[in-house]
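S1.2 Input.
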Amino acid sequence: MSIDYHEKLKSSILPFTGILLFFLLALYIRTVPAESVFISENFVRFGGNDPWYHLRNVESILHNFPSMLWFDAYTQYPHGTDQVFAPLFDMVLATLIWIIGFGDPSTELTQTICAYYPSFLGSLVVIPTYFVGKWAFNDRRIGLLAAFLIALAPGQFLSRAIIGFNDHHIAEALLSTVVAMFLIAGLRRSESSDFTLSHLRENGFSQIRPILPYFLLTGFFLGAYTLAWKGALFFSFIIGVYITAQHIIDHMHGRSTEYLAIGGMAIFIVALVMVLLTPAIGGTKDLQIKGLLAGFVAFPILSIISYYMRGKQLNRYYYPLSIAVLFGAGILLARVVSESAYALVTSVFSYFMRTGGGLTIAEASPLLMRNGVFTLQPLWYNFGITAIVSFFALLVLTYIAIYRRNNREQTFLIVWTVMIIWAMLQQNRFAYYYSVNASILSAYLGIRILDLVGWKDIGSPFTETAGNIGNWLRQIKPVHVISLILILLVLAYPSYNLASQQNQGTGGPNGYWIEATQWLKYNTPDPGLDYYESYEQPPAGQLYPYPDTAYGVMSWWDYGHWIEVIGHRIPNANPFQQGIGGRRNSIEEENKPGASTFFTAPSEAEATKVLDAVHPDPDKAGARYVVTDVEMATGKFYAMAAWTLDTSDYYVRVQTNQGTQTLPGERYFNTMEARLHIFDGNGLKQYRMVHETPAASTVEVGYKRVYNALFSGGNTIEESNTGYVKIFEYVKGATITGEAPEGEKVTISTTILTSTGRTFLYSQSMVSDGTFEFVVPYSTEGPIAGETQFDTMPIGPYTITYGNVMETVSVSETDVLSGNIIEM
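S1.3 Output.
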């Protein structure tokens, strides 16, 4: 016994060493752009959008340890939001930081661990990938090659685990692969410890004891996966599809199916208990419970039907037919009992598809569609050559399973892979799931090719049959070495090359947005709400009781988390797609107030109506500040319009010297977004620029050239790039009144000096009917304590001109904020 154990230990040294090296390789690749994350001593730039909200959650947990932030009043003003994320990812991370920091971790320690955490999790994926490859094919070589390939995997699997991208996505990939690993281990054991109900009656649980721990561990990690991602019912569905398919296969081959019922029930009951013990799962707890309960009930029914038919020796083909009838009856019952359940069941094959504005969410768009055009390029970007190799390997495995022999592990691998492909084609985010499948399948095909050139004839260094390493090495011939090098180069080099190109940065807010959000934090009034408070969720149907000093910041949803976490201000819209407004299904729907309707509003008056409608209280505005950037004014504008389902005429086809081009049209230049960012808010009555960041070289100049050439009517604007991010304040405005001869054109103007040293002319004009009245947003006398400390303002008083008359008038900040009337 001790000799056998010693031999097994010796045979494990090489695989262990390989896995450790692949882990370190994966960790190195993912931490290359560390300098772009740790950009200063007191600022860590996390990637993307959601990683910032995970930081928000972790900081909240640490300040209120161990309480989760179940309701956040610091976003989606004036409603706040229930916790959108499933809790496990942030709870585990916060607990780890709390332990390392001895109960009082510093901000620096917190942010450093958060930055490295996704890279660590992404590197850990090599371990379950190795075991899945090894156990599915009973071949350590396949496991090792799969682990090597996943360590090098490019595309979304890399980007979701790059340093600074602290999001739950990579935890999904890790936990789902662990679930697959233990399920495959249980299926392997079940083939050597097959049992039936009669065995259970005769021997009790002794026969199931060897495999039950694997199914229980599968259930535990399925539960952990469910607590880490609110869409985790997806993987429960994969397991359910596999168990159903395996029931049919086993029944058609005359084998017992009871192990599937017991295993499936064990898996789902453990996950179900974990779900029941969790207060909330991003608003999907009820759905998770229903899905797990459905599987728990369905699995024994499938086995009982099989057991009955085998006992009665009925035609085997009746079994899949009875399952189809049962499924159809279930759909009809759902339609009678619950419309929501019926809609869920019937929409299962397009479950992940988005429409309208949802298609503008980068991770939710179909994998092979770019700007409405079919393309295969994302396959290469995400998987390199393993995309092609894995698809071919899948076909080979499917052929073997159908026409030769199948084993349960490989059947699961086939079902798992097909389901991931189905999800990935609907939403490209699932590409980071498929990287695991692609690595395993490519490794399988690679090793099988090596066996064809003679590797199988020389045994394996991992088995006792190969003797010692020296004897094994002497069997290797040049053809073996050349074939191994070629397989590694073909499978691994494209992935390594792509990963080396793609790991040069993490993304996240650029310097302009960092500066703008920090300006908000230090130069606007405190909302009067503790950022780290453990907020009490308001009763259903009621608003959170914000203090009177609270206010919203209107911007596009992409930037909501940055405004909240960096700027410590309350955004109206956020990357949870909350506060966007607009329409979802039909142009006939109400165009609900929100960011999309505000920025696409055709006039200042319409935009202000939207702002007022955002807040249910008619005496309060939905936002005090509006933040725009050049991306919103150019490339992202179409996305804002798409959320309203009304995109016509914002861009028009125009014949130019360069041929027919799509250019911004008159409707675009009338929108609130264009009025604010392209025209600097010139002529607006209640919106004033209070800060702008430095400019960048962008297409803003091109938009201004189009305006000057086609729509200016002689009133041209300067064709230059201006602030990348601009912050405006919504104010009551001071009303300036006076008398002028009837019919005279009266103009009020002043020169605005921005925070970058740029100047522009602010002006309004009207025709007098004997009197004139202007509402102006700028104070000429500077900021006052306790209010906006703006650094963009007039360089002198307003000038009012008509005929040969010129008068000046000064406006105080109190006049602007209180809406005072100034009589000339």
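S1.4 Remarks. The chain has 32 helices and 20 strands.
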